[in-house]
Amino acid sequence: MDAIFLQILNGLDKGGAYALIALGLTLVFGTLGVVNFAHGAIFMMGAFCAVTLEKLLTLSVKVKDESVTFFDAYKETPYLELWFGDTGTAIIDWSVPLSIILAVPVMLLIGIVMERSLIRYFYKRPHAEQILVTFGLAIVLQELVKAAFGANPIPQGAPDIVSGSAAVGAIFGLGEAVVYPWWRLIYLAFSLITIGLVFSFLHFTTYGMVVRAGMADRETVELLGINIERRFTIVFGIAAVVAGLAGVMYTPVLPPDYHLGMDFLVLSFVVVVVGGMGSLPGAVAAGFLLGILQSFSSMTEVKDIFPGIDQIIIYLVAVVILLTRPRGLLGRRGVMES
Amino acid sequence: MSETKLIGNVSRRTILKGSAATTGAALIGGTFPMHFIKNAHAQTFRGDPGSASSVKLGFNVPQTGPYADEGADELRAYQLAVKHINGEGDGGMLNTMKPLELKGNGILGKKVEFVTGDTQTKSDAARASAKRMIEKDNVAMVTGGSSSGVAIAVQGLCQEMGVIFMAGLTHSNDTTGKDKKRYGFRHFFNAYMSGQAIAPVLLDEYGNERRAYHLTADYTWGWTQEESIKAATENIGWETVNTVRTPVGAGDFSQYITPVLNSGADVLILNHYGKDMVNSLTQAVQFGLRDKQVNGKNFEIVVPLYSRLMAQGAGEAAKGILGTTNWHWSLTDAGSQAFVKSFGQEYGFPPSQAAHTCYVQTLLYANACEMAGTFAPWEVIKQLEGFEFDGAGNGPTLYRAEDHQCFKDVLVVRGKENPQSNFDLLEVVKNVPRAQVEYPADMFGGELGPYQV
């Protein structure tokens, strides 16, 4: 029972990240009709917003390290600590949450620039060409990040106060031993809130409603004199912000490296396909569903019966869905169907 | 050009002396007189620099992919080794390694040049890159790599093509065990040695009543390390609760770590390397494993193969964790110091264990050629087989003839609690003597294969 409970949490947590990335992917597909393979790279760049801010906050004065005698080595003390003492240390400690403030405008800008300067030229081109150009873009972005930050993962700590584990077992009456890291619980809450905000924006604001109308019938909306293209550009920016924030918040869970985006991209695409291309609730539901399935399939008890199932489960689901219901769980009739 | 000249000279001389009319006739007839050519009966071989003034070596390292930083460090070490062999810089280990016939004038008087390739940490890419080096660039030797999968693949290719492969960082027992090759040589230590070295320290630190849970990277290296560490820990009385294979590059290991919490285990052994190890260790710590008490004991995490680059990636999580390493820059023997000094002055930071093994491998190959007096691989192999040396950083070392595995001291290290500098991340707990990690040559099976292919 304890194990199942923990795997559900794991699945929800992982599913949160999948859902956030897939949400952006499906939003872009639904509005602009573009299959964006650079979306994983956007997630990765969000994570590197956190790395950048941490590097800026920990800019240090270098003092020669006398303990190293073979060559010139340096010890480093961050300026923030020198100038502000404990306040400086606290600011550095909170660098990941603070990165959100940096990441929102940066990711919005990256998204808009990406759409205006490259992606918009591919709206009318076949999907295969969109995939090629966005995949190429993803490779360029990740190589740039590698050139700047190296290939090794760069650890990012959660603030001290939430770096330990929560005794979730005690809350649910499962015993003291059942613990779960605070930050992962925060991540789950964060993903639910972000998903809620995106849905509210699309459903309860006029702007969002126009966007949805554009998704359903672009021509009619344009005939009404609305510049739908500009709104879709903003939607692309919002998708970039959502993926970017998902990346920022994920850094304490997984030390980011330049390849982080690619690791998530394929899974997120499967999520979108399973959920239904262009369907927002589908992306969210499939994200959590596949996250949980992945977690359960890696339990020893399951692996004893189906060896290696943990590595193929997601693709197995995708195959079954494509064979039996090509438009995905919640996809609109006609999408991906002949 | 030189051949024409030779023929011209020979002809002129023979005509002038008038003593070899038959040779002249033969020349005119297009048949070259064999007794004028040195080594006329020697066999040809790939990578033969012939009469060129330089010899080329192939450095095949991961320049992209998850081990790119390690590959970059290997490349730095190779460039330094080339410098030293060619007589530039301060000479590094050329001043400390014994016996050594290198004179600082290249190899056999030929300047050393190199080409580089990218293994991408993928067996097929590594083989393709090695093949290109051998066929297009005519390299006399291939070296490098940071994965056992790659090492075994490239070693197989080198055996087929008759070019010596001096393995870089590879820790699987198979490299010099079931997959050993006549043309492959490994200076780095292996999983079995890690087990033998770390077990007594684990016994001292954590006692003999422990229950271990293994998470293992699902490929040759992970499997052999799991097997070796399991055997070594069971030997000191530990029980193995479970061994779970994880896909390479899994990223998030949480679904593999949560079952550990209630498994009754009180030690987690991470048979992971590089990025996987950084992720699994960080996440295991996040799940509170190190603050946990099980069976009345503190829960412990062990990383059998440790490196400074990995400790850097894992940050805080690496502190206090035990593991083994082939070499560490803080060693104070003359060889290590000479190398760290050269490397530090050149690049501004100390070398990694990957850099060390690659540097030493290059010197060992160069020296063996010098000893053999030829680049003919079968002669060079014979010099490397059974070669005993010292002054390269791990005490007296033997390149065992039967399996091409180096035997030397192994280090047990611990993530340092209070690092003094950016590089001061591991402390040496014990320098385990070579005798403790030795094993019979036939223990892991395998056949070396022929000298000439």
UniProtKB/TrEMBL annotation, chain A:
GO biological process: amino acid transport
Topology within the bilayer: Multi-pass membrane protein
Segments traversing the membrane: 15-35, 42-61, 91-110, 161-180, 187-211, 231-252, 264-293, 305-323
Superkingdom, natural source: Bacteria
Keyword hit for Transport: yes
GO molecular function: transmembrane transporter activity
Subcellular locations according to the entry: Cell membrane
Pfam families: BPD_transp_2
Keywords (A to Z) from UniProt: Amino-acid transport, Cell membrane, Membrane, Transmembrane, Transmembrane helix, Transport
The keyword Transmembrane helix belongs to this UniProt entry's keyword annotation: yes
Entry GO CC: plasma membrane
Primary subcellular site in the record, as a coarse category: membrane
Family: Belongs to the binding-protein-dependent transport system permease family. LivHM subfamily.
Protein name, per record: ABC transporter permease
Naturally occurring in which organism (per UniProt): Thalassospira profundimaris
Automatic annotation (TrEMBL), chain B:
Ranges of residues in domain Leucine-binding protein: 54-416
Record keyword Metal-binding present: no
InterPro entries in the cross-refs: BCAA_transport, Leu-bd, Peripla_BP_I, TAT_signal, TAT_signal_bac_arc
SUPFAM superfamilies associated with the record: Periplasmic binding protein-like I
Keywords: Amino-acid transport, Signal, Transport
Single Gene Ontology BP annotation: amino acid transport
PANTHER family: LEUCINE-SPECIFIC-BINDING PROTEIN (PTHR30483), PERIPLASMIC BINDING PROTEIN OF ABC TRANSPORTER FOR NATURAL AMINO ACIDS (PTHR30483:SF6)
Record-stated family: Belongs to the leucine-binding protein family.
Protein's name in the database: Branched-chain amino acid ABC transporter substrate-binding protein
Lineage start: Bacteria, Pseudomonadati, Pseudomonadota, Alphaproteobacteria, Rhodospirillales
